[in-house]
Structure prediction request, 248 residues.
Amino acid sequence: SDTPPEPIGQRFHHLTSFTNQGYVSDDPHWGSQLPLYKSYPDAPRVSLTLPDPAALSHPQGLPELVNKRRSTRSYSDEPVSLQQLSRVLLSANGLTRMAGGSARRTAPSAGALYPIDIYIVVSEVTELEQGLYHFNPEDSSLSRLESGDVSDQLSATSESQDWVGPAPATLILSARFPRVTAKYADRGYRYAYIECGAIAQNIYLQTTALGMGTVTVGAFNDQKLNEFLDVDGVREAGILIMPIGHRN
Prediction:
């Protein structure tokens, strides 16, 4: 046939669509159940600094923060404080309340399934050793997965983009896809990406409120990033890289 193959993006969107008869795809894939919280029980843990509720209010209202939001690609040498990092992480995907018998978070999630995890590369954060960490929303803590300066490894995952690596801290958003595909089949991938975007905007707004900056980096070597996070790239994969720091 002379008909060109359908582009993979169009094919994905078409096959994960709903009609009156259900899925367009004749063979949707359903994922297996995974625990709500990903944990590293043998890793050293650091409790985040929970902010004073009074500190959560900001003289700038939401419209002003949205208007000031910018993508920042250059960061000063000023360290990020543990409290600042805590506020960013808790705003990004922290717990907010109980509803329907389950803990809800700052970002919307299809079916309250919460497939997104946040890893953090720490280079210059007060009160934290350098290394690779994982954020635990369940108890607002960090698990240290690797110690030492890993910024060069992180930089290599982005093909050495200037703003990936030098920042005081870098958040990496990953998705455990079976969390949503177990309920929504392949359409769950759409929901994971939507949730990742909502978390990214939370990070933008909180860094802006703190007088800092960030940028979403979607151009990276998937294989290198997934190896860096020690995830398989299929059931779990890196989605976004977000350096944070004080603007130059």
Notes: The helical segments are 8-15, 53-56, 62-68, 82-93, 151-157, 178-184, 188-209, 222-229. Residues 152 and 161 are 11 Å apart (CA to CA). The chain has a mean pLDDT of 94.
